[in-house]
Design brief:
198 residues, alpha+beta, two-stranded antiparallel ribbon, 7 helices, 8 strands
């Protein structure tokens, strides 16, 4: 699944910097690594395979970034994880394209050691260090990677991010990097401009 997604950030970084940067970052020429209200989405359509990789500060999705301690915090994290497990409800895809989910991977320090949220068997010491680092700096992120197979990929001309914005109203902008049959482009999506075309 990572074959296409790993190439996207490197291939499209100049486009994303040129088209989707904030004024604050203009002088530095870089995208912010962690900015509340802003998420990143890589979209790749290769043949009949659609890949989506969402990276967001946890604040945008759950409303906080600390490790969940209270029952209310734990319930909120679990609810968001369950939402993220249903990409076809978060990303508006043309039904005529016939896209079905094949794989998904959800990662965040907030998800803890839940095997459903983490598929790779990382070294436990590294995992503990990541938890300690996330807790210490309170800058937790949530990463969601999806691979879908589309029966009629020619019918997939756009991805509507409106359901994602509706589900997570604290997300105000999504910097999209897209590779599809018409080439590659960077796009700054907002709730009022939520449709990304291939």
């Amino acid at each position: 699944m990572r074959r296409l997604l790993l190439a996207l950030p490197f291939a499209l970084l100049p486009l994303a910097v040129a088209q989707a940067h904030d004024d604050h970052d203009e002088a530095h020429g870089t995208l912010p690594a962690h900015e509340h209200g802003v998420a990143r989405l890589n979209v790749g359509l290769d043949g009949n395979t659609l890949e989506l990789a969402l990276e967001s500060p946890a604040m945008n999705l759950v409303g906080f970034e600390h490790m969940p301690g209270s029952d209310a915090d734990k319930a909120k994290v679990e609810a968001v994880r369950k939402q993220l497990e249903q990409p076809l409800k978060l990303f508006g895809l043309a039904s005529a394209a016939g896209c079905k989910e094949d794989q998904q991977e959800l990662e965040s320090p907030l998800f803890g050691d839940d095997p459903a949220a983490k598929h790779d068997d990382d070294d436990d010491d590294d995992h503990d260090d990541a938890h300690a680092h996330a807790h210490e700096h309170q800058h937790s992120e949530i990463h969601a990677h999806y691979q879908l197979t589309c029966a009629n990929p020619a019918k997939l001309t756009q991805v509507d991010l409106s359901p994602l914005y509706k589900a997570y109203p604290q997300t105000q902008k999504i910097n999209v990097q897209l590779v599809g049959p018409n080439g590659q482009k960077g796009f700054a999506s907002t709730p009022g401009n939520a449709v990304v075309s291939f």
